[in-house]
Write a structure and sequence with these properties.
alpha/beta; Alkaline Phosphatase, subunit A; 2 domains; ten-stranded mixed β-sheet; three-stranded mixed β-sheet; about 35% helix; binds 2-acetamido-2-deoxy-beta-D-glucopyranose; binds zinc ion; metal-binding; phosphoprotein; magnesium; Alkaline_phosphatase_AS
């Protein structure tokens, strides 16, 4: 009896030590590191290069159906049958499994944790490992289980860091680079009292003073109630606080709130740029007015600003560019806005590539998750991507080429005219009525170019993105890899010591 008990207790302890479970950060770190090293076997050692900079272009909700449909839209807009999206021409591609620890169909917070921190997390949680449940109010638990992001690691190693988003700067994806919290909804306040824990907006302004570029929407999370659209109940004005902090530290900074102010910025005169262009998320690309009265910049204009500031650092930089509204439009079943935002996102990628080239910068284009979106109508190439299938359904009713499985587009009558479906705010039909479409659980693509991108291969866990960026830029736990310049200095100094030693030996032998 006693023997059995000892046996089982020992078995349990050994099991816990050597076999991590998905809630443990080590489970994902070990697994991902192993697959990364496995990928190295397929690339000659001389071909594994260090990246000075790395940019992650994150198309929120940009699953394969979105990419394929946007490509068709681009072909129809340009009239060029062979046209592809810019990143489809890149050499290296892998497939990413996006599920959260607890939900097979993930959300943007849990997935951001995977590609920013290299560990998978629970649905709705940001920058904390799987031991923290969604909406936990246990501050100690959060503090004990923070998952350091590659952006934080890059800052420590002397690189510059920034992000660009068309959502609020406190939204799940950009927050994935800096926040450590149990719920993506704790953007400008916490539902519990504990001085050690801060909401997402405060974590950005107070804990990440090294961030050099922060561009997006979300003004209401930074301003006190009663001021403009402010929603903070603690009376803080975090924009003022940020500017005071910058001034105290003698930094060259600028705070901008309009497109005009952004475009008037001299990037040689400032090193820190905070832009907040709307109360909440920014507009869809197709909602922007194409003249000087528009107050919101395009994603391309923001990306250009970010790259021009960050590239001044000789040690390099890490940047996240999020095409956030691809997802927000899909949630509304509005494919017109979604696909046009995807093309605007592609334009930002091309802009960055044209400024930086592909020698020093690793660029990865991926999505956090897919969507309930399908391109399953059956029409000729000549038919508008937003048009009707070439044959009606069993009841003689027309249906569109683009359809959703869930969302607000549900309509039991299913009677639409050709004019109705061509309206920008038309909601494509969904099979299941919901206020907001659900995400898709299907795997997403990751397209890469530049140093390190040749390790982008196979079907991987989404944590692979973080590990590959960390590995290629030689930061964090991958700082001493053989391809890292730091390591070469080590080899060089060893040779130098050897030469000195031998020359002394020779001198002694002559004496
Ligand atoms: C504005 O219009 C010009 C000229 O038609 C075009 O080249 C440009 O791409 C447009 N910009 C936006 C943001 O739509
Ligand atoms: C379906 O669309 C075709 C082409 O636009 C049109 O001729 C036809 O009348 C439509 N059918 C219905 C039932 O609306
Ligand atoms: C369904 O479609 C019909 C015809 O286009 C429209 O009149 C009606 O308002 C729609 N119903 C809902 C709930 O959107
Ligand atoms: Zn979403």
């Amino acid at each position: 009896m006693k023997f059995l008990l000892i046996f089982f207790v020992t078995f349990y302890i050994v099991n816990r030590i050597f076999c991590a479970v998905p809630e443990d950060p080590q489970y994902w770190r070990k697994l991902t590191k192993k697959t990364l090293y496995y990928s190295k076997k397929f690339v000659h050692a001389n071909e594994i290069k260090q990246a000075k900079n790395a940019i992650l272009f994150l198309g929120d909700g940009m699953g394969f159906p979105s990419i394929s449909a946007a490509r068709l839209l681009k072909r129809q807009l340009t009239g060029n049958y062979g046209e592809n999206l810019a990143f489809e021409k890149w050499d290296n591609v892998a497939v990413m499994k996006t599920y959260n620890i607890d939900f097979p169909v993930p959300d943007s917070a849990g997935t951001a944790t995977a590609f920013c921190s290299g560990v998978k997390a629970n649905y709705g949680t940001i920058g904390v490992n799987g031991r923290v449940p969604f909406k936990s109010t246990d501050c100690s638990l959060m503090l004990e289980n923070g998952a350091e992001t590659i952006y934080e690691k890059a800052l420590k190693s002397g690189k510059s860091v920034g992000f660009v988003t068309t959502a609020s700067v406190t939204d799940a994806t950009p927050a994935g680079t800096y926040a450590h919290i149990s719920s993506r909804h704790f953007e400008s306040g916490l539902p519990f009292e504990d001085k050690r824990c801060k909401d997402i907006a405060r974590q950005l302004v107070e804990d990440h003073k090294g961030y050099q570029v922060m561009l997006g929407g979300g003004r209401k999370h930074f301003l006190p109630e009663g001021k403009e659209s402010g929603g903070r109940k603690d009376g803080r004005n975090l924009f003022e606080q940020w500017q005071e902090d910058m001034k105290k530290q003698n930094k060259r900074y600028k705070f901008v709130s309009t497109r005009k102010e952004l475009l008037a910025t001299d990037y040689n005169k400032i090193d820190y740029l905070f832009g907040s262009f709307s109360s909440s998320h920014m507009k869809f690309h197709k909602e922007l007015k194409n003249d000087s009265s528009e107050t919101e910049p395009t994603i391309t204009e923001m990306t250009e600003a970010a790259v021009k500031i960050l590239k001044k650092n000789k040690k390099g930089f890490l940047l996240l560019v999020e095409g956030a509204k691809i997802d927000k439009a899909h949630h509304l079943n509005q494919a017109y806005y979604s696909l046009n935002d995807l093309l605007a996102f592609e334009n930002a990628i091309m802009k960055a590539q044209s400024i930086l080239g592909n020698k020093e910068t690793l660029m990865i284009v991926t999505a956090d998750h897919s969507h309930s979106f399908t391109h399953s109508g059956n029409a000729l190439f000549t038919e508008d991507v937003f048009g009707f299938s070439s044959y009606p359904d069993k009841e003689g009713k027309n249906f569109t080429n683009l359809i959703y499985s869930t969302g607000p587009g549900y309509n039991s009558s299913r009677e639409f005219t050709k004019e109705q479906i061509k309206q920008p705010d038309y909601k494509q039909l969904s099979a299941v009525p919901l206020d907001s479409a659900t995400h898709g659980g299907d795997d997403v693509g990751a397209f890469g170019i530049g140093p390190g991108s040749n390790l982008l291969r196979g079907s991987q866990e989404q944590t692979y993105v973080a590990h590959l960026m960390e590995f290629s830029t030689c930061i964090g736990e991958y700082a001493n890899e053989p391809h890292c310049s730091g390591c070469k200095i080590l080899i060089f100094s060893k040779i130098l010591i050897l030469i000195v030693f031998i020359s002394h030996l020779i001198r002694f032998s002559f004496d």
